[in-house]
Amino acid sequence: MSDSIDNKKIVDRFAGEKREHSYIEDLDSVSTADKERMRLAGIDTTTRERSATYLQKDHSLVHCNVTQEGLEVMDIKTALETHGWLNEYVWRLVKPDKDEFTKQADEVPHLGYFIRALPGVKSLSPVQACLYLATDSISQNVHNIIIAEEGSNLHIITGCSTAPGVASGLHIGVSEFYVKKGATVSFTMIHNWSEGVVVRPRSSIRVEENGRFINNYIVLNPVESIQMYPSTHLVGDNAVTSLNSILVAPKGSHLDIGGRAVLSGKNTRAEIIARAITTGGTIYSRGQIVGEVPGVKAHLECKGLILEGGGSIIAIPELEGRAEDLELSHEAAVGRINQSEINYLMARGLTEDEAVGVIVRGFLHVDIEGLPPELKEEISRNIQKSQKEYL
Amino acid sequence: MLHIEDLKVQIEGRVVLDGVNLDVPEGKTHVLFGPNGSGKTSLLMTIMGFEEYKVLRGKIYFRGEDITGLPIHERAKLGIGMSFQRPPSVDGLKLGELIHLIGCEEDKVEEIASEIKFEHFLNRDVNVGFSGGEIKRSELLQLMAQQPDLLLFDEPESGVDLESIVLIGKTISDLLKERDGGGRRYCLKKEREKRKRSGLIITHTGHILDYVDADEGHVIYNGRIACEANPREILREISANGYEECLRCLTQ
Ligand SMILES: Nc1ncnc2c1ncn2[C@@H]1O[C@H](COP(=O)(O)OP(=O)(O)OP(=O)(O)O)[C@@H](O)[C@H]1O
Ligand SMILES: [Mg+2]
Hints:
The complex is a heterodimer.
Chain A: H1 2-13, H2 32-39, E1 52-57, E2 60-66, E3 71-75, H3 76-82, H4 100-107, E4 113-117, E5 127-133, E6 139-148, E7 153-162, E8 168-179, E9 184-192, E10 196-207, E11 212-219, E12 225-228, E13 231-234, E14 240-250, E15 254-257, E16 260-263, E17 269-279, E18 282-291, E19 297-306, E20 312-321, E21 327-335, H5 339-346, H6 352-364, H7 373-390
Parallel strand pairs in A: 1-5, 4-6, 5-7, 6-8, 7-9, 8-10, 9-11, 10-12, 10-13, 11-14, 12-15, 13-16, 14-17, 15-18, 16-18, 17-19, 18-20, 19-21
Antiparallel strand pairs in A: 1-2, 3-4
Helix pairs in contact in A: 5-6, 6-7
Chain B: E1 2-11, E2 14-24, E3 29-33, H1 40-48, E4 54-62, E5 65-66, H2 72-78, E6 80-83, E7 90-94, H3 95-102, H4 109-115, E8 125-126, H5 132-146, E9 150-154, H6 162-175, E10 198-202, E11 216-221, E12 224-229, H7 231-241, H8 244-251
Parallel strand pairs in B: 3-10, 3-11, 6-9, 9-10
Antiparallel strand pairs in B: 1-2, 1-4, 4-5, 7-8, 11-12
Helix pairs in contact in B: 3-5, 5-6
The complex binds adenosine-5'-triphosphate and magnesium ion (MG).
Magnesium ion is lined by residues 40-41, 85, 154 of chain B.
């Protein structure tokens, strides 16, 4: 298969010299430049509004701290040593032989985080995890496990970023999520890479009875390529998922972002929403909904905006109904900004650029469920910033 | 304030105005009548500068300056503002945010919105799902933030219920009042010197005449201005004899 040859080539490209990083007790001592890169990925180094923080630099765990009882956050290696039972959760939802990248994550692992909420525990503020690429042209292969025990409520922000001056690298992230009975996980992932970084997350989520999984994915800044297709399995009755992505592809970025929801529990619900903007890059926005039992409901929506710069957006919605009496729908639209909206705002005194800016910001402003207000503001700020730079 | 000379306008390859001459002096409010499709909206859109309304001939002057070729936002900056008959909606942009962007101080947005009983709509996306009457209020609120000197109203009272029409009428009359610095109380922009305002209002029913001192009326017919007279007289004439009479006027 040519795919696997290409994938092998990608893996081989990032064989740069690896470095160890020492543990950072006080995150305040992180350089201002690094802090800013992390901030753009939603990571707050003051940790004031966070119930736990996990920070991994290249292959080293450099900071890990939990302030709320009932939450467990550690690197996966330590977690496997701590909990004998954890083996039951590793490589269960994602298979190591799935592709070259999962294989790499299996054979050459570089930690990753373990986040768990004990039964009934509700995270009072988000748990944050940052995967940071600090060395040029290396590969970072992480394996993450997230477990929300019965009735718990886990709020996670993960920010992935490169350090200033790191132009290229490979990030492979295998993530397995277990949302148990009546639990809720809201997972917001913000990517803030640089032009030469290749990103291959491989995620799978299992949601039990009455569980809820909310996934928000945001990428606004340039990257070489990202390809991912998280798969959410609603196996328990009344399980619900909502997968949102906000994608901006400047010139040179290649984004292939999808999401799959498999509805096999009774009365399950899914919603997949994507907002995509290209200013010169390529975006594949995929979505697949599989309804396996009667009575389930799901909706898929992709809206794409092509701004100046000659980029392209390919929206590929897929609906697969395998039972009677289910309701699956999709809605996709790709185009440019409506000139009459620009004119309307200009008639109120805004310049053309201002009008375009306001409309673009509005377009990206899907009301995302489960986002804490300060993160909403942060995203708003990020959008405005990337707008200034790239739009 | 507004002076139009021999204007010929085409949209989508079709001539909609041909030979329009119009003068709205400073401090005066004029009213435009005319049957459906006669070119009233087209005239206002052309004054505002919408490019799809292509000027084939003639000139538009605002305060003596030829603005025929100016882009929309520069006309707005000069002091021209319009309430649209059918404005587009803008997804994701909150009305309150727009009011602020137009020039109203952030902490005053709610206050001016409440003047037109529209404060509960500030958190809604601009015009998205607004009813006909709500659109009118949204438009007026935007003009209240903008405070233009030449105000163009395209059927501001059509589709408005009898109770709300009082509010709409008063707001329009207030917008048309002579202003000194205090008139721009909510706006961030530089205070302007005392200025007289002018208005051009499109109406079918004439209800707005009960609230606004209109100085003159015009009838547009077949893309031309057929007459100039007292607006109430025109209204009476149209009610009695329809627009057919205008044709006679035109061909006289
Ligand atoms: N985008 C367009 N494409 C084609 N024709 C148009 C367009 N816009 C306006 N027209 C035509 O131009 C003519 C004048 O339209 P206009 O909107 O100015 O009429 P109006 O006098 O405002 O009518 P009403 O009282 O119904 O609002 C109409 O015949 C209309 O169909
Ligand atoms: Mg009209």
